[in-house]
Specification:
With 217 residues, the protein is an alpha+beta fold. It contains 6 helices and 8 strands, in the order ααββββββαβααβα. It catalyses: N-terminal L-glutaminyl-[protein] + H2O = N-terminal L-glutamyl-[protein] + NH4(+). It is an enzyme of class 3 (hydrolase).
């Protein structure tokens, strides 16, 4: 057997081991807690589920808030989109990442038409495309927060989903509002994309991709 063949076989065996070890965190999308227009709480529930069932994997999990100063972020392949390309412009969106290692990352987006989960590079390509053809008001920024930290500190009293008269814009989840011992509402700290402030770390699109997708040289 040639050296190149041995190397190819070794790589295949390594990939098989990785494929065997890398299993979806959530059995079925339909079994996940989901309420339309409450993406931050849907993702909080995903984090909670991992912390209960497989707590050893929580350190590999991240919560990503997507927004910008204008609160206008275009995302494609969203179920709420009406056109063929399923484009939606959200004020913000939240997704769940499972970063298995430096080369493998899965994205869980309960509002996406893409598979659940989708490999990071495919999700970015299909959902964000590029900022280069967009006006600056539509550039996406990403606040990345470790899932464990998000579970401990996030709080929302759902005020952003109420009209001035107190009625709901969209019906809230059936469970109590998420709070901590020190806060009942800090959602705006996560949506804010000012660098150097708030929880986690803020990236532009290019740096976000480089953070979770390493290209082999």
């Amino acid at each position: 057997m040639s050296v190149s063949s041995q190397k190819h076989l070794s790589n295949n065996e390594s990939n098989k081991k990785n494929d065997k070890a890398l299993k979806p965190l959530f059995p079925k999308q339909a079994e996940c807690s989901y309420v339309s227009c409450y993406c931050e709480e849907n993702v909080w529930k995903l984090c909670q589920d991992v912390s209960i069932r497989i707590p050893g994997e929580l350190d590999r999990c991240y919560v990503v808030f997507i927004s910008n100063p204008c609160r206008t972020v275009p995302l494609w392949k969203q179920r709420a989109g009406r056109e063929e390309d399923r484009l939606v412009i959200w004020d913000y969106h939240v997704i769940f990442l499972y970063s298995w290692d430096s080369k493998t990352c899965l994205v869980y987006d309960l509002d996406s038409e893409l598979p659940f989960p989708t490999f990071f590079h495919k999700y970015v390509t299909e959902t964000f495309r590029t900022d280069q053809v967009l006006k600056s008001d539509f550039h996406r920024f990403f606040r990345v927060v470790p899932a464990k930290q998000f579970l401990q500190h996030f709080a929302s009293d759902r005020r952003h989903m109420k009209r001035p008269d107190g009625s709901w814009i969209k019906p809230p989840p059936p469970y109590p509002a998420i709070c901590t011992s020190v806060s009942t509402h800090n959602l705006d700290e996560y949506i804010n994309m000012d660098l150097g402030t708030g929880p986690g770390q803020v990236f532009n699109l290019t740096d976000f991709v480089h953070r979770f997708y390493k290209v082999e040289k």
